[in-house]
Specification:
Helix content: under 10%
Low-confidence stretches: 322-327, 354-358
Number of helices: 2
Radius of gyration: 25 Å
Structural class: mainly beta
Distance between the termini: 42 Å
Number of strands: 34
Shape: elongated
Length: about 425
C-alpha cells in the first residue's frame, strides 16, 4: 500500500470531474488514450509529466475500480498502481492531479466506493449536494473530511450506506436533507464520526435518524458530534439495529429532539455501548436497549418525557452489569433534569444491581417524577436547575444554591 502524497481534494466551484483525479500535479495531466489490462495494475498510454508515486490515477474503465494510488512511475507513458483493474480496454479517459468537483458524479462515486487505503484522506473544500445515496461496497477504509462543509441530500435518502466491513472515518462534516426525511443520514459499518453535525436545532430539514449502525459485526465511535432530530416523537440519533452489531462509543456528544437518543435493538452481538460526557435533551427516551448493555457515565439527561435509561425484559440473556468496575464499566455521576419517567428502569428478569460498596454510584436529579427500578444509586436531590440556560443550549454549571452550587461543591466537572 503506497502512502498518498497528499489529500484527495474536491471543490465544486473550481474542480473538474472530467479532467482531474484529485491528487497529483496542481495542473492536472489528462487525456483519452489510456489502456488497462484485466487483473493488471499497469496502465499505459498516459502522460506522466510531473507525476510521482503517491499520486492518484483516474482511468474511466467500463466496470470495476476507476481510481488507484500510483505505486511507481515506469516511463513517460506508463504507471503501476496499488490495485488491479478489471478489463482489457483502450482509448480510455484518464487524469492525474488537479481537484475533482462533486461527490455526486458517477466516477467520483466510484472513488468513494472503491477507495481502499488507510492513509487516504478525501477532503471537500465546498459543500456537496447528492441526488441519491453513495453506496460503499468494495473498499475497506479511508477518511472523509469536510472542515464544516455540508453534505446535503436532495430527496428522501441516506447520504452514505456501507456494506459489511466497508468503513469510513467521517471528520468535521455536516449532514442535511429535505423536509419529510424518513431515513438515517448514514447507514454505516465500522466507522468513526468526529466533530460531525446532523441537522440543525429546530430545522425542518433534519434526518429522522442520525446514524444507523446497520452492518453485521459493526460498531461506531462518536466524538464531539451534534445530533438534531425532528422532535421527541420520532427517530433515533444513534441506533445499533443489526442482529450482530458490536455497539458504540459515544463521547462528548449533544443529542436533541429525538424519540430515542440512543437505541440498541435487534441485537445479539457481544459488544457494549459506552456513553460518556454527553448531553441528551428533549427526547422521549434517553437510552433504550432490548438487547445489549449500555454504560452511561457523566451524562446529562434533560427534558426526557419518559424513562432516561430503559432496558426491556428481552435483554435478560444479554445484559451483564458491573457498576463496581469504575474503570471499564462506569455508571456514575449522571445528572437528570425534568425526567417524566424513571431515571433508570432496568426491567430485566433476574437483574438487580446492588450499590452497597464503599464507592457507590452517585447521581443527581432535579424535578424528576420517579427514581430507579433494578438499580440502586445514591441519588442526590437538587432543589434548583444546575445549568445556566439549558433551553438555549447552555449547559454550563451555574452557581445557584441547591443547583449548580451543589455540583461545584462536589467538584463536578463536565
Amino acid at each position: 500500500m503506497t502512502v498518498p502524497n497528499d489529500r484527495i481534494i474536491f471543490n465544486a466551484d473550481t474542480g473538474s470531474d472530467t479532467q482531474s483525479s484529485g491528487l497529483g500535479p496542481t495542473q492536472a495531466v489528462y487525456g483519452n488514450t489510456a489502456s488497462t489490462s484485466a487483473a493488471s495494475a499497469t496502465v499505459t498510454g498516459i502522460d506522466t509529466t510531473g507525476v510521482t508515486a503517491g499520486d492518484l490515477l483516474w482511468v474511466q474503465t467500463s466496470s470495476g475500480r476507476q481510481f488507484s494510488i500510483i505505486a511507481s512511475v515506469d516511463s513517460a507513458t506508463q504507471v503501476t498502481c496499488d490495485e488491479t483493474f478489471s478489463n482489457n480496454e483502450s482509448g480510455l479517459t484518464w487524469a492525474i492531479g488537479g481537484k475533482r468537483a462533486t461527490f455526486d458524479n458517477t466516477s467520483s462515486r466510484n472513488l468513494l466506493d472503491y477507495l481502499d487505503n488507510y492513509y487516504c484522506i478525501v477532503e471537500t473544500e465546498t459543500d456537496q449536494s447528492l441526488t441519491s445515496t453513495i453506496s460503499r461496497n468494495n473498499g475497506s477504509f479511508f477518511t472523509l473530511k469536510g472542515n464544516d462543509k455540508t453534505i446535503s441530500c436532495n430527496g428522501n435518502f441516506s447520504a452514505f450506506s456501507h456494506g459489511q466491513h466497508k468503513n469510513i472515518y467521517y471528520y468535521n462534516l455536516k449532514f442535511s436533507c429535505v423536509t419529510g426525511n424518513t431515513v438515517a443520514a448514514v447507514n454505516c459499518a465500522n466507522s468513526a464520526f468526529h466533530y460531525c453535525v446532523f441537522g440543525e436545532r429546530g430545522s425542518a430539514n433534519n434526518f429522522k435518524t442520525g446514524v444507523n449502525v446497520a452492518a453485521w459485526g459493526s460498531s461506531a465511535v462518536f466524538f464531539r458530534c451534534k445530533f438534531y432530530g425532528q422532535g421527541n416523537t420520532t427517530g433515533d440519533a444513534i441506533v445499533n439495529g443489526w442482529y450482530a452489531s458490536n455497539l458504540s462509543i459515544i463521547t462528548e456528544c449533544s443529542i436533541f429532539d429525538f424519540q430515542y437518543a440512543y437505541k440498541a435493538t435487534a441485537g445479539g452481538g457481544s459488544g457494549k455501548t459506552m456513553i460518556k460526557n454527553s448531553i441528551i435533551s428533549n427526547c422521549q427516551y434517553g437510552v433504550f436497549s432490548d438487547q445489549n448493555m449500555v454504560y452511561v457515565h457523566e451524562t446529562i439527561f434533560h427534558d426526557i418525557l419518559n424513562d432516561a435509561i430503559y432496558f426491556t425484559n428481552t435483554a435478560s440473556s444479554k445484559v451483564s452489569l458491573d457498576v463496581l468496575d469504575r474503570v471499564t464499566c462506569p455508571y456514575d455521576s449522571n445528572i437528570f433534569i425534568n425526567v417524566g419517567g424513571y431515571l433508570a428502569n432496568f426491567n430485566v428478569s433476574g437483574l438487580s444491581i446492588s450499590n452497597t460498596t464503599s464507592s457507590p454510584v452517585t447521581w443527581y436529579q432535579y424535578n424528576c417524577l420517579n427514581g430507579t427500578i433494578g438499580f440502586d444509586a445514591n441519588v442526590i436531590n437538587l432543589t434548583a436547575d444546575p445549568f445556566r440556560n439549558p433551553s438555549a443550549g447552555d449547559f454550563n454549571i451555574n452557581n445557584t444554591t441547591g443547583g449548580g452550587a451543589i455540583l461545584r461543591s462536589a467538584s463536578y466537572t463536565f
